């Protein structure tokens, strides 16, 4: 049995943790029960909450930090840009290089860095005065890029030269907000599921299925959970579904 963290998406994202023998069964369960797309399935390897490979450590004391550090790392074949937040003020460029050389990009060791930038303060609000969204098509798919420029013509000119695709629209930002409006789609908002283990210790855990299929009933949820989920290496002894 393993614990998996699942991210589902339909309008907005939802996260759920369940137990199962493998990621394939986890995906099968949510395909049976939810209208949302399974964006990713991640096996939990270390967890304070679930006491997995965790050892008690002294409480972290808040100290001065850089708002973010941007690291452009290179391997023989790849490059990747990392954005890290709340980096200790005592950390230096050499520290970044030393620690990142312990990492990989795909299957290759990081060997070099083209850029390491430290940012002191968080932007209070995005400056959208000269911000444009470029919409382009490539092989029947639509993509977008955001560019700051003096004018929309200049932003389009740069995109035309650099991007392998047809620019079909240029949009100037007038407003940006982080607010999320409740999605009123053709689905049931959610239901809770409790999985029971009938062993001596009588373990159980509860999770929520977001954005349920509108035509689903509790028996189908129970049947799929029986087929795809686990608790403490065992098949569930009982399953309860409730709103």
What does this structure look like?
The chain is an alpha+beta fold and 243 residues long. The protein is 17% helix and 43% strand. The chain has helices spanning 23-33, 93-100, 152-162, 218-228, and strands at residues 2-10, 12-20, 37-43, 65-74, 79-88, 104-105, 108-109, 112-119, 131-138, 141-148, 166-172, 187-196, 204-213, 238-242. A hairpin with a 1-residue loop joins strand 1 and strand 2 (12-20). The longest helix is centred in the N-terminal third of the chain and has 11 residues, at 23-33. The relative contact order is 0.17.
Describe what is shown at a glance.
The chain has 243 residues and is α+β, with helices and mostly antiparallel strands. 17% of the residues lie in helices and 43% in strands. It is extended.
Mean of residue pLDDT values: 88
Rg calc: 24 Å
Approximate strand percentage: 35-45%
Distance between the termini: 27 Å
Q: Can you count the beta strands?
A: 14
């Amino acid at each position: 049995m393993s614990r998996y963290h699942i991210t589902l998406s339909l309008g907005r994202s939802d996260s759920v943790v369940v137990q199962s023998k493998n990621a394939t069964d986890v995906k099968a369960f949510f395909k049976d029960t939810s209208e949302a797309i399974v964006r990713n399935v991640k096996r939990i390897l270390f967890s304070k909450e679930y006491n997995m490979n965790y050892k008690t450590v002294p409480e972290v004391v808040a100290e001065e930090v850089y708002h973010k550090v941007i690291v452009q790392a290179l391997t023989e074949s790849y490059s990747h840009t990392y954005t890290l937040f709340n980096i200790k003020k005592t950390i230096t460029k050499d520290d970044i290089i030393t620690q990142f050389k312990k990492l990989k990009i795909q299957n290759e060791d990081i060997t070099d860095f083209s850029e390491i930038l430290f940012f002191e303060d968080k932007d209070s609000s995005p400056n959208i005065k000269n911000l444009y969204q470029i919409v382009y098509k490539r092989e029947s798919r639509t993509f977008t890029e955001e560019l700051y420029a003096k004018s929309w013509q200049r932003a389009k000119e740069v995109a035309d030269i650099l991007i392998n695709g047809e620019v079909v629209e240029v949009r100037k930002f007038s407003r940006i907000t982080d607010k999320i409006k409740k999605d009123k789609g053709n689905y049931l908002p959610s239901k809770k599921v409790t999985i029971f283990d009938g062993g001596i210790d009588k373990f159980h855990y509860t999770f929520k299925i977001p954005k349920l299929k509108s035509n689903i009933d509790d028996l189908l949820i129970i049947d799929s959970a029986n087929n795809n989920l686990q608790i403490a290496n065992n098949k569930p002894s009982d399953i309860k579904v409730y709103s």
